[in-house]
Amino acid sequence: MNQSRPLGLVPAMGWNSWNTFTWDINEQLIRDVADRFVSEGYKDAGYEYVVIDDCWSLKERDPNGNLVADPAKFPSGMKALADYIHSKGLKFGMYSCVGTHTCAGYPGGFEHEFQDAKQLAEWGVDFLKYDYCFKPRHMSGELLYKRMSLALKNCGREILFSACNWGEDQVYSWIRESGAHMYRSTGDIQDSWESIKRLAISQLDKQCYTGAFCHNDMDMLVVGMYGGSNNGFIGSAIGGCTDTQYKTHFSLWSLMGSPLMIGCDIRQANPATKDILLNRDLIAINQDVEGRGAYRIKPEPQWFHTDDVFMLVKVLTDGDLAIGFFNLSDDQREISLQFWDLGLPYASGFSLSLYDCWTHQELGTFRERYSPVVPAHDCLVVRAKLVK
Ligand code: GLA
Prior knowledge:
The chain is of the alpha/beta class and 388 residues long. The chain has helices spanning 18-21, 27-39, 42-45, 77-87, 113-123, 141-153, 175-178, 193-202, 232-236, 243-255, 271-277, 280-286, and strands at 13-16, 49-51, 91-97, 127-131, 160-163, 182-184, 215-217, 260-262, 295-297, 309-315, 321-327, 333-334, 337-338, 351-356, 361-366, 369-370, 373-374, 379-387. The chain is globular and about 75 Å long. Alpha-D-galactopyranose (GLA) is lined by residues 18, 53-54, 102-104, 131, 164, 166, 188.
């Protein structure tokens, strides 16, 4: 879908092994995911990167200092896996780390940046997630991301650079200049409503720091996991979320311009999960080519609403507005949007024709205000068109 576009123009879409599988990865799993991307419509919907996270290598480099794929997990090697993924018209992603070791204790990229970039290019890698564990204390993270960015840009292959420093060291203030195409702005997501809510709210006032070629990455999606991680911290000890909560999660990530990296086991995805992940109207908002962040409107009366009830508005390339009415609170709320707050006074003569991006139906034409009632933990996302 995005193949003809310059690298990193719009948020990346794909799948990453970490949330569900952590250390328990192998080449068959990765091939299965690639197969499902094609056979179940994920590729057609725009998902393209199949990414292996941590725990793919041996614990030692070879005598030449090269990283070695664990032959027990990846007996055919990374080049063969890349070839397979490419043969499906998809792209292949891998993982490394700024520090001496990855977060799970495998060799990191420190002082091997140019050598590793060359190796990744030889294998046919298209995407590198670069983590922040075991960073030598005397080195600045900013410098190490600049280093890897330069190495990747000069390795002879187009590789999307996904920085992952968890929002530390005021990353938003320097990451765009480093050359990274996306950057993690938060700590690790967990498969819980509290986590989704916390991450989203933490980025509401950082929307001016996302956009084309360097997207604010709020972490991989937990949609459809239902507590099904092999890692207690991520989900198995937490129990997962409801479909309504996953729908709201996906809406927030879409409107806020986060990359959409699926984290569930798509081989087990039920119809509700697929409806969410394959929602073309939401994906179109996320992938809008101007890549603008969303601004927040606090509903009136402000004294009544807490920070977990808000509207997000994303200005789209064609002049439409994507508007999300989010109720992250535990009670049903009426959320009233005054069109004045969108820059649309009554005297302009314009009304808004609203289309519901979840039911895929027209809601009608409204003048001056629109006040939906939104159940607890739910949201309404509309695409609004100016009409006279
Ligand atoms: C960090 C990252 C996660 C994941 C793990 C792997 O915690 O933030 O997304 O990559 O490391 O060990």
